[in-house]
Specification:
- This protein is mainly α.
- It is rod-shaped and about 60 Å long.
- Keywords: Membrane, Transmembrane, Transmembrane helix.
- This is Sodium ion-translocating decarboxylase.
Length: about 40
């Protein structure tokens, strides 16, 4: 197996963007749930 630093860098960039997207979606869901709880209390 030949080690290709360019492919490794591309893999890390994809991983960072993927994880960043997941955390962004979770953060948005968290903020929306807080807003809904404050707007419509039980």
């Amino acid at each position: 197996m030949v080690f290709d630093p360019e492919a490794l860098q591309t893999a890390f960039e994809l991983m960072i963007f993927g994880m960043g997207g997941i955390f962004l979606v979770l953060f948005l869901l968290y903020v929306v749930s807080i807003v809904l709880i404050k707007r419509f209390p039980a």
